[in-house]
Amino acid sequence: MTTEMSDEEVSAIREVWIRAKTDNVGKKILQTLIEKRPKFAEYFGIQSKQRQSLVLTQKLKAHRIQNFLDTAVGSLGFCPISSVYDMAHRIGQIHFYRGVNFGADNWLVFKKVTVDQVTTGATDSSKEKDETNSSGTANGKVETEANLIPIADINNVYSGENCLARLGWNKLMTVIVREMKRGFLEEAMRNCKEEDNNGLLGA
């Protein structure tokens, strides 16, 4: 799949981001990452035993996630896409120096969680659907030939895999994760070479 975004996809990315960033999406991404992979709490340094310190750390990390995505989205269409690459590349380098060694599966989890949380359309203020409504659905689901589909997925314009906004965000996060990984690995290789050279000089 090409990662080049069309003008329509960029517009869809911006539109869905306007809604997401007003709904604490950074916090949602962080919480979901930790729920899916508790190890992420260690990666983000959220291990304090003091409750007040823990809350402040979580807010800071969530703010950083959301602020980076906001900057990346704000750059689309106004700055060369290389500016987004450079930001992601730098974050990858920072992760190396902080000792955050993501495995390949964790990069994929980060990408999927971000795309899902930004494009779900769910909000903190949204209320649960009635268990039964006038259309004949029951228990919050509607029956199809294959299975039962949650009402939220039918009413949510952002839920489909072929949705323009979801495709656009998937492409954006693909290049962001790719450049973060590249920055991390390049820095790791550079440091390995420096250590080898220092070892030869000290021999």
From TrEMBL:
Gene3D superfamilies (alphabetical): Globins (1.10.490.10)
GO MF terms held by the record: heme binding; oxygen binding
Domain of life: Eukaryota
Membrane-spanning residues: none
Region (Disordered), start-end ranges: 120-140
Protein name, as recorded: GLOBIN domain-containing protein
